[in-house]
Model the fold of this input.
Amino acid sequence: MRLSTTREVSYDVEVVNLTGNHFQRLRDLLESRRSTLITTPSVDHLLGESIRRSLEGVDFEYHVIQLSEKQKNLQTVQSLCARTSGLERTSVVVAVGGGVCTDLVSMTAAVVRRGLECIRVPTTLIGQVDAGIGLKCGVNYEGLKSRIGLFHPPINVLVDPTILRTLPLEHISYGLAEIIKIAIVTDEELFYQLDEHLEDLLQSRFQNPHHEAANIVRRSIALMLEQLGQNPFEMEGYQRLVDFGHTFSPLIESEAGFSIHHGNAVALDMALSSAIGALRGTISWKEVERIYRLLHRAGLPLDCPYLTPELCVRAIANAEAHRGGCANLVVPQKIGAGVFLNNGLDRQHMQNGLARMGEIVRGIAP
Amino acid sequence: MRLSTTREVSYDVEVVNLTGNHFQRLRDLLESRRSTLITTPSVDHLLGESIRRSLEGVDFEYHVIQLSEKQKNLQTVQSLCARTSGLERTSVVVAVGGGVCTDLVSMTAAVVRRGLECIRVPTTLIGQVDAGIGLKCGVNYEGLKSRIGLFHPPINVLVDPTILRTLPLEHISYGLAEIIKIAIVTDEELFYQLDEHLEDLLQSRFQNPHHEAANIVRRSIALMLEQLGQNPFEMEGYQRLVDFGHTFSPLIESEAGFSIHHGNAVALDMALSSAIGALRGTISWKEVERIYRLLHRAGLPLDCPYLTPELCVRAIANAEAHRGGCANLVVPQKIGAGVFLNNGLDRQHMQNGLARMGEIVRGIAP
Done:
C-alpha cells in the first residue's frame, strides 16, 4: 500500500523599502493573522519602535531576545517555542534579524504545531543575500556547525538594504564574502562590479553608489535563488556551486568555538579552495590573486591559525559524509564559473594549497 | 524574485512476515547504506538477536534505548541525535518499536543533517495501523501533547502482525481503539468484522482468526492511508475524519501527566464525541450504544475522572486554535461515516454529553 503526493513550495524574496514605508508591506502580509515577531536587542533598538507602531492593531506579540552563534542550538529552539504558545496553526512567525536569528526562528517555526508559516526580514547583508533567503534552517549540535536542521522554506522574505546603513563595518564584510562567493562561481560580471565599487560599498554600508549597491543585492539574491531552485531539497545529487567556501569553513568555525564569524570562515575557505584549484590547473594563479585582492579589500581575513592541513583533511572527510560519499570540493574554473574536485584531496595536497595560499597573502598584505 | 518548486513524497506500507523471514526485507531495503537502528529494551529482548543476525555484514549501529511517553520531548530527540553521529547524509535511520519510539526516532531523523531517510518497523498494533504509518512525527512540549512536530514521511514502513503475538493484552486494546476509530468514520463493514471477531482478536493478540486478523490490519492501514492521502500536509483545510477521537484525548493525556495511554484517551474521546453527536441528532442512540459496547469489549475505558466539562471546554478551544479557527469536532453520522460539528459546543452541551455518556456506560458496565 502506497501513499504518493507532492508538496508545493513557493516564496518571494522582495527587495522593498520597509523603513521608509513604516513596515507597511509586513503589515499587509500579516493581515489579520495572529503572529509572533522575534528580534534581537540591537535590531529592536534601531527598528523596534517603527515596527511596533506600524503593526498597531495587528494581533501580534513582540519578543526581543539575545541570540548569538554560540546559542544556535536545540536548547534555544526549545526556549523560543515558549514564545509561540499563544499561536494557532494559521499563525505566522516573523524573524527580524541576522542569520542566527532567522535560522533559530525558522527552525522554531518549523517544529511548532507541525510547522508554522515564517516570514523573514534579514537585517544583515549576509542574511539578505544568503542566510535568510534559502529553504533550510539549522542549528549547531555538540560543536558541529548546522548538524541539526531541516527544510522549512519561508512564505516571504523582505529585504531592505537601507537597514544596512547602521551595521558595523565587519558585518558588511561578512555579507561581501557570500556575494563574492556567488560571483566567483556563477557571475563574472558581478565580480567586476564588486571590484569597481568595493570601497564605496563597504564604507557606505551598501548605500552608495546607490543604484549599483541595490543592483548588486538584487543580483546576488537572484543568482542564489537560481542555484537553490536547481536542487531545492538537495535530492538531485550533491554537487552545489553554492557550497563554494563551505567545505573547510564549518570546521574553522567549530574549532574556533564559533568565535570566528561565518563570513570570515567562508573567505578563508574560498582562498584555500582557489589555491587548490590553481594547483590542479582549474584556474590561473593570476585570477586567484585577483580573488585574494578582492577578499582583502573587503576586509576579510586570508590567514587563520585554525586552518591547518589536519583540519583540511577532516573537513574533506566530513564533506564526503555530507555529500553522498564524494567531497565535491568547489573550486573556481575561472572567475564566474566553478567546478567540483573529488580526487587527490589528501594531506599533502592540502599542505601545498596552504603553502601557496600563504605565499600569495604575503605578496598582497605583507 | 520567486522560488517555486515541488517536493515528491512517496512511501510504501508493506505487510510482511519479517520474523519468519529473518528481517530479510529490512536487509534488502538497507542494502549497503550505513544505518542506525534504534529500538527499546522490550523489543530488543524479543527480536534483537534475530535482527542483529539478519543484518550481519550490513554497515549498521544498533541502539537499545528506553523510551516512554513521558520522555517524548525535545531533550530526548537531542540525546538521540548523538546516536546518529556516525551517519552520512545518504544514511538511513530505522525505528523498531511502538508509537513513542517511531515518533521520537522519526523526529530525530527529520532534523539530523537536514533530514535523514527513516524506515519504521512498528511493533505495536497502534503503531501498525496508526501512529507508525503517517507523515507526521511529534513530541510533547511543556505537558502539551504533540505540540512540537513536523512532517517527515518515512521511506518505508514494514508491518508484521506476527510480532503482536507477545504484546501485553492492553496494547491490543490501544490498537483496537484506532481501528474502531477508522471503522466508525469510514467503514461500516470493518466495524461489523470487529464486532464479529473481537474476543478472538483480542485474546489471540491478532493472530486468530488468522485470515480475518490480517485482513483487518490491512484494511485499517488502507483506510488510514486513503484519509491521509486526501490532505497529506493538512493544507487542504482542517476537516479530517481521522481526528475522530482526537479532540478531547490530547488534554486527557496531558492532564493525566501521560499516565493514561493514548489508546485509552482516544476511546474516551470517541465515547463522548458519539454522545455529543447523538444529542445533536447526527447518529442514533442505538448506534452509539453499539459503539460503547464494542469499546468495552475491546478492554477500553468508558469513564475517567479527568474527563470533566472544564476539560472539554478547553479542548474545544485548543481544537479551534489548531484547526483554523473552527473546532471541527468529528462525530459519527452513522457507523461508517463522520461529520464535523462547529457550533454550540459550549459548557452546557459538554455537560449534557458527559451525563448521557455516564448513563449509557452504567447500562453496559454497571
User: Anything to note?
Assistant: The beta strands of chain B are 2-15, 35-39, 60-64, 92-97, 117-122, 136-141, 144-151, 156-159, 329-334, 337-341. The two ends of chain B are 67 Å apart (CA to CA). Chain B touches chain A through 60 residues (CB under 8 Å).
